[in-house]
Amino acid sequence: MIIDVPQGKDPIGYVWGEMVPGIGVAAAAFSLSVYEHSTLGLREFEAARLRIAQINGCLFCQDWRTERDGVKVEPEFADAVTDWRDTDLFDERTRLAAEYAERYATDHHGLDDDFWARMFDHYTQPEVVELSMSIGSWLAFGRLNRVLGLDTACVLPGH
């Protein structure tokens, strides 16, 4: 970790809450709202989230699995996300979520009419906006945690 955290302080709570309370508390609320208020299916949600985690290299984010009503994706899901183009474990919505996350993070200028036509064949406009906001949250905050070395100490509140 490159940030000095006082002894006995939780690194995430300290950095996100105490160091920059005007920004960090709001950022944490946004980050948590992505999980609490998502209307997306678990598989497409996790495909996009895990693809961003893989791109960011955030150790905690790659190990985390979102749970809904006691259900998590299967153990081989993360490997399928890596191989999103060819895996037979994904339906088209899940595959598109992984593709969108990757392109959003690495080639957002390359999102062309063909991509959007495929996307809107399977997602509504509100779903695309929600997925975009979620991806943006994971990209920004997962990368922040990785760059600052917080990903080795990251524990989400309540878990």
Automatic annotation (TrEMBL):
InterPro entries: AhpD-like, CMD-like
Top-level taxon of origin: Bacteria
Domain Carboxymuconolactone decarboxylase-like residue range list: 28-102
Annotated protein name in UniProt: Carboxymuconolactone decarboxylase family protein
Organism name: Nocardia coubleae
